[in-house]
Design goal:
Structural class: alpha/beta
CATH class of the largest domain: Alpha Beta
Strand order of the largest sheet: 2-1-3-4-5
Number of strands: 5
CATH superfamily of the largest domain: Glucose-6-phosphate isomerase like protein, domain 1
Number of domains: 2
Order of helices and strands: HHHHHHHHHEHEHEHEEHHH
Largest sheet: 5 strands, parallel
Shape: globular
Helix content: 40-55%
CATH topology of the largest domain: Rossmann fold
CATH architecture of the largest domain: 3-Layer(aba) Sandwich
Length: 334
């Protein structure tokens, strides 16, 4: 199998570290069995992305030992790292139609499909911990804490993350705006940003070109805008544009894509910022709670108005003093 440079450059991210690019570079020096495995992976990588070593060996018609040794020839430390790289490529290439067609058909039950989706989400959540970088996390938090104004960008299917991040962060810090659409006026907004602004971009494969172009524009202005990114892969086009980047993979089993792992990461960011902001965050939260009580915004599960602060003070943790029971004296006999 020969991969042309034109095919590799169809990607929006640089091709140098892509799985298919590594495969093409290694092709001339592979043994016949290794070349057979490479051909299978190049032609069937959509299938191979979620196979185990034994499943891949059987499908490619090679030995298990060949599969185990193969990743090192491409510069990967182990099979798991090779498979993660294939999944990155699959995540970029698959359209919604491809994802729907790739769903397993052997178990058509709703419970079976739900189980597979939840398992994919659990693996994505574990991946956040495996790829977590504390220095990057600290730099990410520090930039947000110092910024006077924060703009969060996230388009298309990550729009819920944009709204969730902006809503949560604005509860503890002023000057937060979430933007989940793209139009030409955003270039005006970015042009007026300066060193007091932080721009947080959220994007996963397939990366929206309008968002990437906006971030590239901000990066090239030279006005001191602090750019942060939440993305899914070292191949992401946001990586070279951001001062700090945090990784979270969107599960790719279903045709829509799951945002459980990125949402958990955002939850961690906002929670850590709340701790750092301390009394400033508490005062802002208390003011918002007062507004909610005044407007009677919330109701309890039974449909009754939410308890006021006074009634909360009489919760089981702080029970009211019991009223004295009336005396029950027996009447005296004459």
């Amino acid at each position: 199998m020969i991969l042309t440079y034109a095919k590799m450059t169809q990607m929006i991210h640089p091709p140098d570290d892509d799985f298919l690019a590594r495969l093409a570079r290694a092709q001339p020096r592979l043994s016949p069995k290794m070349a057979q495995l490479a051909t299978f992976l190049g032609e069937q990588y959509l299938r191979a992305a979620f196979m185990s070593t034994r499943e891949l060996a059987a499908a490619a018609g090679v030995s298990l030992a060949t599969v185990v040794r193969f990743p090192a020839l491409l510069g990967y430390r182990n099979f798991e790292e090779l498979r993660a790289s294939i999944q990155d490529r699959v995540n970029f290439d698959l359209t919604g139609v491809d994802r729907l067609r790739s769903l397993p058909t052997t178990d058509r039950s709703a419970a079976g499909l739900l189980r597979r989706i939840i398992e994919a989400d659990v693996e994505a959540l574990r991946s956040v911990l495996r790829t977590f970088s504390e220095p990057q996390f600290e730099r990410f938090l520090g930039t947000i804490l110092r910024a006077e104004r924060i703009t969060i960008l996230g388009f298309r299917y990550v729009r819920p993350l944009t709204s969730y991040f902006a809503y949560s962060l604005s509860k503890i810090k002023p000057g937060v705006t979430g933007i989940s659409y793209a139009d030409s006026s955003l270039y005006d907004r970015i042009r007026l940003m300066d060193e007091d602004d932080a721009l947080i971009a959220i994007a996963f494969a397939r990366y929206p070109r309008d968002l990437v172009d906006l971030v590239r524009y901000a990066h090239g202005l030279g006005t001191g805008i602090h750019i942060l990114a939440i993305t899914d892969s070292p191949l992401s086009p946001l990586l070279p544009l951001a001062e700090a980047t945090l990784f979270a993979k969107a599960a790719v089993l279903d045709f829509v894509g799951s945002l459980a792992a990125p949402a958990a990461l955002i939850n961690g960011i906002v929670s850590a910022l709340g701790v750092r902001l301390g009394q400033q965050a508490l005062r802002r939260l208390e003011a918002l709670e007062d507004a909610a009580r005044s407007a009677n915004i919330y109701v309890t599960a039974g449909g009754h108005p939410a308890p006021t602060r006074k009634s909360l003070l009489a919760s089981p943790r702080n029970p009211p003093s019991p009223r004295p029971l009336p005396s029950r004296r027996r009447p005296q006999r004459p």
